[in-house]
Amino acid sequence: MKTIAVLTSGGDAPGMNAAIRAVIRYGIHKGCKVYGISRGYKGLIEGDLAEVDLRSACDIIHRGGTILRTARCEEFMTEEGRRQAATVLRVFGVDGLVVIGGDGTFKGARELAKLGVNVVGIPGTIDNDLPYTDYTIGFDTAINTVLDAIGKIRDTSSSHERISIIEVMGRNCGDIALYAGLAGGAEEVVIPEKGQDMEKIFRELLESKSRGKKQSIIILSEGVGEAHELEKQIKEKTKMDSRSTVLGHIQRGGSPSAFDRILATKMGATAVELLIQGKTARVIGIRNNMIFDMDVEEALGVIKKFDSETYELIDILAN
């Protein structure tokens, strides 16, 4: 393994730069030439590669986003596009590729491996929706961003004695809402895995009001509904004052937490080590606080197990 390349694809996540830094510096430490690919698979198809050095990884571990930038690429979804990507890697003499991203990125890695590309994937997505690993890079930072918002919104919610609905990201995975809801002391958490039980929400809000509670926080995952619609229904059914806030893409930005920096760094170094050992079509994860790797096809086939204990704990503690 003489030459490796690294790219980031899909949605950006805090900690991606820490992973890029680790790939660059560990790769050079191992005697490899390292290329950075701009704009994900789109940049790869277009040959947007540039050799990087130790200075390229300076002053980036604390930065959110990705210095390599990212983009969606419909062309890569075609066999012709993937073959073009594989050809570009051969032209540049790239022996191994590190891809950082979510499930779409991993599916792309799987297809490249079928074309003979040595590839290793690192999970980078705030959604934490890759079930084979306990945590993905960026998830911890996103939760802390939501927690900061909960604290600020709770202040004004208490002042006005109202219900505050906070819509968070996560697509069809409710982990951001679930974990932030527990840590933020939310009264209700609405997630795709459980759906919207509107009668339960209305009943519990009214029961809280009858006990003298003046305000409540509801965390709503984007995959199960819209905050503005829930706000409207609460006003109509309970006659209680409510306001909705959609946090949106602020959850993707910001300096990564210590946990995400450490996780990304360990995964980046592990990815390079796997390529040097001649392993391919592998993805890296963390389980029981241990870094591990597994086949990409196997990883994509893992079914997520819902954390019912955490969900039930939120419900108990909210009373």
Automatic annotation (TrEMBL):
Protein name stated in the entry: ATP-dependent 6-phosphofructokinase
Family, per entry: Belongs to the phosphofructokinase type A (PFKA) family. ATP-dependent PFK group I subfamily. Prokaryotic clade 'B1' sub-subfamily.
One GO cellular component, as annotated: 6-phosphofructokinase complex
Main location (coarse class): cytoplasm
Gene label: pfkA
Swiss-Prot/TrEMBL catalytic activity: beta-D-fructose 6-phosphate + ATP = beta-D-fructose 1,6-bisphosphate + ADP + H(+)
SUPFAM superfamilies in alphabetical order: Phosphofructokinase
InterPro entries the UniProt entry points to: ATP_PFK, ATP_PFK_prok-type, PFKA_ATP_prok, Phosphofructokinase_CS, Phosphofructokinase_dom, PKF_sf
Residues forming the catalytic site: D127 (proton acceptor)
Pathway(s) per entry: Carbohydrate degradation; glycolysis; D-glyceraldehyde 3-phosphate and glycerone phosphate from D-glucose: step 3/4
Organism of this sequence: Peptoclostridium acidaminophilum DSM 3953
Gene Ontology MF, one: fructose-6-phosphate binding
Keyword list, A-Z: Allosteric enzyme, ATP-binding, Cytoplasm, Glycolysis, Kinase, Magnesium, Metal-binding, Nucleotide-binding, Transferase
